[in-house]
Amino acid sequence: MTTANDSDETPRVPIVCPDCETTSRVPLSDVADAIERHNDQLHDGEAVAEVDPDIADRIADLAADELGLLENTE
What we know:
Elements: E1 12-17, E2 22-27, H1 31-43, E3 50-51, H2 53-66
Antiparallel strand pairs: 1-2, 1-3
């Protein structure tokens, strides 16, 4: 049984860092801050860590479809 205090329903996004060879999952609302903090602390601010590219591509596809950007205009 789940209670109001359980945060298991919060979407968690995979963040990958190829230089550190690490992957972590953070709540959707914390993604930008987590990536910025990681890159600032470990890579002198260079954009190394990022949302898993496969997930980012899928989100972009879903957004484009929702916005009608993928419809044929013949």
